[in-house]
Amino acid sequence: MAKRSKYRAMRADQNGLISYSDEAHDTWQTLISRQRKCVAQYACEEYQHALAQLDLPNEQIPQCKAISEKLYDATAWKVAPVDALISFEEFYHMLANKVFPAASFIRSRQELDYLQEPDIFHEIFGHTPLLMNQRFAEFSHAIGKIGLAAEPADYSWLARLYWFTIEFGLIHSAAGPRPYGAGIVSSFTELPYSIESNAPKRLPFKLMDVLRTPYRIDALQTSYFIIDDFEELFELIEQDLLGAIHEARRLGMYEANFPLACTKHAA
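The structure assignment produced for this chain is given below.
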């Protein structure tokens, strides 16, 4: 997670507010307007319900302070602006304290359809709605607490669980698998791809398979894992996840099912 970013983090003032440019607000409006239409067609009901509850503005980038007030009332979570990319240690520490770290910048219009690193649109539109859901919020909190107890050698394995659930998870519905992961619901390209394309594998959620499956951050996913409901995630945190990570490390990674060189797509 600790890489260099070409974007500059925006700093909050003494009141916890960030001053964005008109261009930044216009970019937000473009992104959220088109993504709402995709979400209504493809995203799971749980995400759509949470998005409606959060009631994000269309015309301007919301302030983390305002989002935090709504989250705290629902599940005692908050969201805080951070530099573009943070370390595993800082990331897990924040989750363990029920604070979601949100990159404070917004992508340029030249990267409207693809951005390899997370920006505030991905963070707020993708991640924060489901933090209104108690079971999902408790799972996110547990990931942080496990991260604090983990050794550095475990971090990337725990990140894989996070990736295939919170970032790129699918959930069963009456209409078939539907996305809930932030990396999908915030992506103009990956959202329809995750449902309509015949290219990716859509697999039943099995913890050891999830921990041992490689992924790329710079391409459309080649594998998705499907949970039955958010209760399954809640039950997952009652297991010995660190023990499962150590077993996965012993067994090793599966062979990658993507090419060594991939074309970049929206994230």
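Interim note for the steering committee: Residues 22-251 form a domain with the Phenylalanine Hydroxylase fold (CATH 1.10.800.10). Residues 261-267 have pLDDT under 50 and may be disordered.
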